[in-house]
Specification:
Elements: E1 3-5, H1 20-32, H2 46-53, H3 55-68, E2 71-75, H4 82-91, E3 101-105, H5 111-121, E4 126-131, H6 138-155, E5 163-167, H7 173-181, E6 185-187, H8 201-209, H9 214-227, H10 236-249, E7 254-259, H11 265-279, E8 287-292, H12 301-306, E9 311-318, H13 345-362, E10 367-372, H14 377-397, H15 409-419
Parallel strand pairs: 2-3, 2-4, 4-5, 5-6, 7-8, 7-9, 9-10
Antiparallel strand pairs: 1-10
Helix pairs in contact: 1-10, 1-14, 2-9, 3-8, 4-8, 4-11, 9-14, 10-14, 11-14
This protein binds 5-phosphoarabinonic acid (PA5).
Residues 77-80, 132-134, 137, 140, 193-195, 277, 405 line the site of 5-phosphoarabinonic acid.
Length: 425
């Protein structure tokens, strides 16, 4: 179970503290489906639903790809790639001997990035998983045309056998293409928005190809959502949502999410999309940023300690380290580090994290610690369920619709007009 420690935020609270009554109402509204964007709250029951219907097919497709290819090109953008990328970096930062490499494309329009990936693919056998709920997003569509062409060059009339689509059950260009060509098609449910879709085929197929045990993820997520359904201030999702909204009300407009595991970096990107796209609207919302500690203590540390006092800090920690490394003794002690002998690297890291927290709190940065059990399938599931639920509660607390993203259309309109798309104005 997730634990939230607010002791480093407490000194910055007013006497009334975080508004748990409002968190309770937000949770109730979400569970009853009576709030803004209620048509997009299907992610709450997603793990159970996917287990009953699609999981076997996802695992079978992943096994097929693992058995014949050294690479998967997963094509998608935003919610159609960040969760899978975050999961793979967190749980499988280096592929095992039998794990295909997963390349993420369709998240950029850079010619250089495209050519770099094609070069890295070299003559590897590969499959493509094209992921787009709408089926019309420009970046993945452009990328898919290119990789489809490469598949045809490599496999000729067998190219279609190397394509897996993940899209809407009924609508969109991708769905029509898939039906016409007979590609296996996985579904992004109607009631699940992109950034809440990591526990659907969107995230699960690339994760399974990378060697992550997605059955374990789903079983853990079912338990986790159940555990997070407790309706009291003991609920860690309430604690996190209410604390950050309380601090926001006091002028802390930027939240930096930090972690001492470099492998967490892309989970922070996933979190930034989840919170930024869900809350940043109606001219309000906490700006989500991220740091990787201890590396960024030597770049952003100065700003955090002494810059403008608008930052709150949320630190993700794991109760248990996955591995150990005892610090070695050195007879000469020329580097003066023998005072660390007898300690494990994981302990040194923990002490550093405590020291940083104390320094930042004394410097005027409210600190929230979110602790997950372990960096494994269960830990990942706990992280997704916790952050998704807290995001929805936090969004409802600030009276926005956490499930839409009307603001992202503005650039698209300009881009399509400037690129000369027929009918674009
Ligand atoms: O959260 C969202 O809905 C967005 O970030 C989408 O995931 C993103 O824009 C990609 O959309 P699509 O899957 O339709 O290509």
């Amino acid at each position: 179970m997730v634990k939230v420690d607010l002791s480093g935020a407490q000194p910055f609270f007013t006497a009334a503290g975080p508004d748990y009554k409002l968190a309770e109402l937000a949770h109730k509204t979400l569970a009853e489906g009576s709030g803004l964007g209620a048509d997009f709250t299907g992610w709450l029951g997603l793990p159970q639903r996917i287990k009953d219907t699609e999981l076997d097919a996802i695992v079978a497709a992943a096994e097929k790809i693992r058995g014949r290819s050294q690479a998967l090109v997963a094509i998608g953008i935003g919610g159609s790639y960040l969760g899978a990328k975050g999961a793979i970096e967190l749980l499988k930062p280096r592929p095992g001997k039998n794990d295909p490499r997963v390349f993420f494309m369709g998240n950029t329009l850079s010619a250089d990035a495209l050519n770099d990936t094609i070069e890295a693919l070299g003559d590897m056998d590969f499959d493509v998983n094209v992921i787009s709920k709408s089926g019309t997003t420009l970046e993945p569509a452009v990328s898919f045309r290119i990789f489809r062409e490469l598949l045809v060059k490599k496999y000729g009339d067998k190219a279609d056998e190397h394509i897996f689509a993940t899209t809407d059950a009924r609508r969109g260009v991708l769905k029509s293409l898939a039906d016409e060509a007979g590609w296996p098609c996985f579904v992004v449910p109607d009631d699940v928005g992109g950034r809440f879709s990591v526990l659907s085929a969107v995230g699960l197929l690339p994760m399974a190809v990378a060697g992550i045990d997605v059955r374990r993820v789903i079983d853990a997520a079912i338990k986790e959502f159940k555990a997070l359904n407790v309706r009291s201030p003991e609920n860690p999702a309430w604690q996190y949502a209410a604390a950050r909204q309380h601090l926001y009300g006091k002028g802390y407009g930027v939240e930096i999410l930090g972690c001492y595991e470099p492998s967490f970096r892309f989970m922070a990107e996933w979190w930034k999309q989840l919170y930024g796209e869900s809350e940043g609207k109606d001219h309000k919302g906490i700006f989500p940023a991220s740091v990787e500690f201890t590396a960024d203590l030597h770049s952003m540390g100065q700003y955090i300690q002494q810059g403008p006092r608008m930052l709150m800090e949320s630190i993700v920690r794991f109760t248990e380290s996955r591995t150990a490394y005892p610090f070695p003794a050195d007879e000469g002690n020329a580097d003066g580090l023998n005072y660390l002998v007898g300690r494990d690297m994981s302990e040194i890291c923990r002490v550093a994290a405590d020291a940083v927290r104390d320094a930042h709190v004394s410097g005027g940065v409210p600190n929230i610690v979110i602790e997950f059990p372990k960096r494994d399938e269960e830990g990942f599931a706990a992280m997704v369920c916790f952050f998704e639920l807290a995001c929805a509660i936090s969004g409802y607390m600030s009276q926005v619709n956490p499930f839409d993203q009307p603001g992202v259309e503005a650039y698209k309109k300009n881009m399509f007009r400037m690129l000369g798309k027929p009918g674009a104005v």
